[in-house]
Design a protein that fits this description.
By secondary structure, the chain is of the alpha+beta class. About 25% of the residues lie in helices and about 25% in strands.
């Protein structure tokens, strides 16, 4: 079996794919520095996001425009989603101490055609500082999302009673690891109980000729393959 077929088969079955050690230590350090520069710029502008999420990395920073074109990422995406790959949007997540992220899928936020996201760890991610969790195979269930009754920054959530807890997979990642996942894959994260640095970039892609509604944060979108 070719590596490309292996990636696709694993992704099609689980809805996510974790690849280890893609970025080296020197690269990780560069991205950490640029993120800290960006966060300081946002503080100076009075725009520091209390939610721990800032959308538009590639709009603000050239290094991240280079990252979303990186063949190490795009080659895997081509294996998973086919030869027509368009970068859509990205964000930095610098998870603060506090509440966990509830179960949800990303489709409910942008809808349209299915999209494929990549989470890149710039710090080690563990259950103690808020690593991701996935429901294996949930991208095939097309589970509905709902507005939570309680106030929460996540306006769309998936009811945990709709899936089998036996399919929940914790996804710790070392800095430099990447997780690729389908936008119907149900996922969450633990809380950052340690309050330590836990920075990731989340890059989202789509099939180039898929029909999608407008998304105002996709101003850096570009075809990266095909």
């Amino acid at each position: 079996m070719s590596l490309n077929n292996d990636y696709k088969n694993r992704f099609d079955e689980d809805g996510f794919l974790i690849l280890r050690g893609i970025l080296g230590a020197g690269e990780i350090h560069k991205y950490q520095q640029v993120i800290e520069v960006l966060l300081e710029e946002l503080r100076q502008e009075g725009a520091y996001p209390p939610s721990g999420v800032f959308v538009g990395l590639s709009i603000r920073k050239e290094l991240f425009r280079q990252l979303h074109r990186d063949p190490r990422i795009v080659d895997v995406l081509e294996a998973i989603m086919g030869p027509k790959v368009e970068f859509w949007s990205d964000k930095v997540v610098f998870k603060p101490a506090g509440e966990a992220t509830p179960w949800h899928h990303d489709w409910s936020y942008w809808q349209g055609s299915n999209k494929y996201s990549v989470t890149i760890a710039f710090d080690d991610m563990t259950p103690e500082n808020g690593c991701l969790r996935f429901v294996r195979g949930s991208h095939k269930l097309n589970l509905p999302s709902h507005r939570p009754l309680e106030a929460h920054s996540f306006g769309n959530q998936v009811d945990a009673s709709l899936f089998d807890e036996a399919n929940v997979v914790d996804a710790p990642m070392a800095a430099g690891d990447m997780t690729f996942f389908h936008d119907l894959a149900v996922h969450s994260s633990f809380s950052n109980a340690l309050g330590t640095q836990r920075r990731t970039a989340n890059l989202t892609y789509r099939i180039t000729d898929a029909e999608d509604p407008p998304y105002e944060s996709a101003t850096a979108r570009e075809v990266v393959r095909g």
